[in-house]
Amino acid sequence: MTRVEIEYCVPCGMLDRAQDVSRAVLEQFGEELDEVALVTGDHGIFVVRVDGEAVFDKDEDGYDVDAIVRAVKPHVGATA
User: Keyword Cytoplasm on this protein (predicted)?
Assistant: First the structure.
């Protein structure tokens, strides 16, 4: 099964974005995931990792919840 980690900047107020991504991933993949974790960070970080591999980084990608869910999809169920 798969672990999704969303590391977000607390001082920047990115909790809402992290929750939006978490909700979208859970709605899309539900029981196929072991865990969706929100990880606090700082210095402007907003990174989504699947089993330790970054699939979204706000420094490199435009924030789009649907695009993030699409980036997660190839990793879900890949290691069954």
Answer: no
- What predicted TM-score, i.e. pTM, was given to this entire model? 0.90
* Alpha carbon 17 to chain centroid, angstroms: 10
Taking a C-beta distance cutoff of 8 angstroms, is the pair 65, 21 a contact?
Answer: yes
Residue 62 Rama label (left phi>0; alpha psi -120 to 50; beta): beta
According to DSSP, residue 48 is labeled E
Give the pair of three-digit tokens for residue 12. 């920047």
Residue range 65-80, pLDDT digits in tens: 999 999 999 999 764 4
Rg for the chain, CA atoms, rounded: 12
3-class state of residue 40 by DSSP: strand
How far apart, in Å, are the Cα atoms of 4 and each of 10, 24? 18, 12
- Are 22 and 68 spatial neighbours (Cβ–Cβ below 8 Å)? no
